[in-house]
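S.,

Sequence below, as promised.
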Amino acid sequence: MNNQKLDELLANLHKEIEGIQSVDEKGQELLRDLSADIQELLERAEKKAAPSMLERMETSIDHFEVTHPELTSALSSLFTILSNAGI
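The prediction came back faster than expected:
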């Protein structure tokens, strides 16, 4: 996958996260951490994702699976892309 497509996916995911308004306390913490991770990736497109980010993505996917399916789908897509890229 080229960097432009990854940047677009990250930007779309960041927009989706910013649009979520009603979440519980754990959800807010997960979104805050993911938002910071995504922003870092957008700023440093060549930098590889840290393992802790991938762990937070998995936790977030589990947490939001039922309540925010569109976010879960975007996170799953990004997780798959990063995993396939060997990150």
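The chain has four helices and no strands.

Coffee later?
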